[in-house]
Specification:
The chain contains eight helices and seven strands. The chain is α/β, with parallel strands linked by helices. Strands 3-2-1-4-6-5-7 form a seven-stranded mixed beta sheet, with helices on both faces. Helix 2 links the parallel strand 2 and strand 3.
């Protein structure tokens, strides 16, 4: 088992892949005793698969998982979590809007917390995305009974036990902090940086997430109310 796994889903990010690999490597190589980078190719239709395989041949710390077809972000994240081996698992996006160096802003909280969620305090997004994200987070918190400021932040750090506890369904990557709480783990949010996307285009808009996100939040809220809690007498 390595100390740290850095996991990122990839979908049509050919312009960012080498930059992502370089940014992660430079951020972690001298900071942890051992690490792996796990990149999941979610059925990309550009040159992402070729570039990933070329990098994996050059770097023994890089592992690539290829999906046969596009399965979505939840599936890619889930495969990365289950395919990683680190004592700690960091999640980031491939668009480099989050900085891999911020993993070490989150790490000091790990001794007392099980899951550290990044919180983008100065978002470099369009006004529409900022407003929709704020509204979406508010609605999700209302429906789930949680108080997560930025559940959609790609930057997350968790213990192995948290990663192993997940059994995700479609769309539930947006609720990882809440699901960690449901599973009995301690969660905290910590401010991280956020940059503008330099290459490629976002794969997610406002309308393609609104309705399904609402339905998913209702499901998570229902699950939270139905969670089983008990303690054996004498323990």
């Amino acid at each position: 088992m390595v100390k740290l796994s850095v996991v990122a889903p990839i979908y049509n990010e050919e312009e960012n892949i080498k930059l992502l690999h370089e940014a992660i490597t430079n951020a972690v190589k001298d900071k942890v005793e051992s690490y792996e980078i796990v990149l999941i190719n979610d059925g990309s239709k550009d040159r992402s698969a070729l570039l990933l395989d070329e990098l994996a041949e050059q770097d023994p710390n890089l592992r690539v998982i290829h999906f046969e077809k596009n399965c979505g972000q939840t599936a890619a994240i889930y495969a990365g979590l289950k395919g990683s081996t680190g004592e700690l698992v960091a999640l980031i996006d491939a668009d480099l809007q989050t900085d891999p160096r911020d993993i070490f802003k989150l790490m000091p909280y790990i001794p007392n917390m099980d899951f550290v969620n990044g919180k983008r305090v100065r978002r470099r997004d369009t006004v529409v995305k900022k407003v929709s994200s704020r509204v979406g987070n508010g609605v999700r918190n209302w429906l789930t009974g949680d108080q997560i400021y930025d559940t959609g932040c790609p930057m997350k750090l968790m213990k192995r036990e948290v990663a192993d506890s997940y059994y995700l369904y479609e769309g539930q990557h947006r609720f990882l902090p809440t699901l960690a709480k449901i599973n009995g783990f301690k969660v905290i949010e910590v401010a991280v940086s956020h940059q503008e996307r330099q290459h490629g285009v976002s794969k997610y808009g406002v309308l393609n997430r609104a309705f399904v996100g609402l339905m998913d939040a209702i499901v998570i809220g229902w699950l939270r109310k139905r969670v089983i809690r008990y303690q054996i007498k004498g323990h």
